[in-house]
């Protein structure tokens, strides 16, 4: 059973290399939450290292496929940096930032193209998580005005899949009913069958309040329940507080808090990691038969497609004509997308395509029109001939001005 998650990790890497050509949905856990929910701290606590980019605004701008692998030695590898081992986790952070900017540009844009990161460590359990951009309401910098919609659409690409478990991260010091993560999860999982709740910032709740009813699964029940965690504060992070020390402080918090001490054994980061490892392993086991059938069906389809090329003759004129038509059609589709601004790749350095044409028409064209000198009588004559010519043999119906009767 322990080999199931590493097996899916290898499939994940293979499918990422294939890009869009593979339509199979792998069993996975997607991490969803608002910008200040504490997602990054939860993931860093799992690894025991500071390795994720931090800052204001949207920090995670591409999906991060984080594969944790139990190992005697500690290092990290990126799928896009084959053969290179990272032992300095500050370098891991810089590489995530650089690879993000390479695809999205420097203007805080987002992209659904994932970054695959595998971390080997004796301190982790076998686990795979997909960290998604934090839900935001207000665009910053050069971000498009519909950034909230774009992020929501990206998150939906993952959590609508039946094979995807949802790790909904919500801070305890906000109203649970208004949780962005739980709202999104409920949209695609109304029965709460695929959702695992994580409640952060329990230590920041107002004095005299607690999240006991939530953690005991009484308030907004989920089939897989809730786990509470206490992360490092921003002050702790700025002060370079060790994650190991933070974990000890988290344990002490649950054991000493009157509202949580009776459930302390079911709270905290180590327990959450065990729960996710078990849940993902069971989820893979449950979905494996159906996944195997889909994989075999796709392999059969590809084999049939390969068979069709056994008697392929490149010099056949009909083949050439068909290929040319397909390329022309694809060019037409790509050109239309470029003009409409709906292409897969968006230029972040300069205006292009339809945006450039739009700018010319609205900013330059009016000034060029004003500069033109023309004979009004001659222009009217040309317009008259043009109207008659486009009607051909059909009779032109004159349009008379409306005469006002005075009342």
TrEMBL record:
Keywords: Endocytosis, GTP-binding, Hydrolase, Microtubule, Motor protein, Nucleotide-binding. The keyword Translocase does not apply. GO terms for cellular component: cytoplasm; microtubule; plasma membrane; presynapse. The keyword Hydrolase applies. Residues 23-289 form the Dynamin-type G domain. This is dynamin GTPase. Its EC number is 3.6.5.5. PROSITE patterns: G_DYNAMIN_1, G_DYNAMIN_2. It holds the Pfam family Dynamin_N. Transmembrane segments: none annotated. The lineage of its organism: Eukaryota, Metazoa, Chordata, Craniata, Vertebrata. Belongs to the TRAFAC class dynamin-like GTPase superfamily. Dynamin/Fzo/YdjA family. One of its GO terms (molecular function) is microtubule binding. GO terms for biological process: receptor internalization; synaptic vesicle budding from presynaptic endocytic zone membrane.
């Amino acid at each position: 059973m322990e080999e199931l998650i590493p097996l899916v990790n290898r499939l994940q890497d293979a499918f990422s290399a294939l890009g869009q050509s593979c339509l199979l949905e792998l069993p996975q856990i997607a991490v969803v939450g608002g910008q200040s929910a504490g997602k990054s701290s939860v993931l860093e606590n799992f690894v025991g290292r500071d390795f994720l980019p931090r800052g204001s605004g949207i920090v995670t701008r591409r999906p991060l496929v984080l594969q944790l692998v139990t190992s005697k030695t500690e290092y990290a590898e990126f799928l896009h940096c084959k053969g290179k081992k990272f032992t300095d986790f500050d370098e891991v952070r810089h590489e995530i930032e650089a690879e993000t900017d390479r695809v999205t540009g420097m203007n805080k844009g987002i992209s659904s193209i994932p970054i695959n990161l595998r971390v080997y460590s004796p301190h982790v359990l076998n686990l795979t998580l997909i960290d998604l951009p934090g839900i935001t309401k207000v665009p910053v910098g050069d971000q498009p005005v519909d950034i909230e919609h774009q992020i929501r659409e990206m998150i939906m690409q993952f959590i609508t899949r039946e094979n995807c478990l949802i790790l909904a991260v919500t801070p305890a010091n906000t109203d649970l009913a208004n949780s962005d993560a739980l709202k999104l999860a409920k949209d695609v999982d109304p029965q709460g069958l695929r959702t695992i709740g994580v409640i952060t910032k329990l230590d920041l709740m107002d004095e005299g309040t607690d999240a006991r009813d939530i953690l005991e699964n009484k308030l907004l029940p989920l089939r897989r329940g809730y786990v509470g965690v206490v992360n490092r504060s921003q002050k702790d992070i700025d002060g370079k507080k060790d994650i190991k020390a933070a974990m000890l402080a988290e344990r002490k918090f649950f054991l000493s808090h009157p509202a949580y001490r009776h459930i302390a054994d079911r709270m905290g980061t180590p327990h959450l990691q065990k729960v996710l490892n078990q849940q993902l392993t069971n989820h893979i086991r449950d979905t494996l038969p159906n996944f195997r059938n889909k994989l075999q069906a796709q392999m059969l389809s590809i084999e049939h497609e390969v068979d069709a090329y056994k008697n392929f003759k490149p010099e056949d004129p009909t083949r050439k004509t068909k290929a040319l038509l397909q390329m022309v059609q694809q060019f037409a589709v790509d050109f239309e997308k470029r003009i409409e601004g709906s292409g897969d790749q968006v230029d972040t350095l300069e205006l292009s395509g339809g945006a450039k044409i739009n700018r010319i028409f609205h900013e330059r064209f009016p000034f060029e029109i004003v500069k033109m000198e023309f004979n009004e009588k001659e222009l009217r004559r040309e317009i008259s001939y043009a109207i008659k010519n486009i009607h051909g043999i059909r009779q032109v119906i004159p349009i008379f001005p409306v005469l006002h009767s005075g009342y």
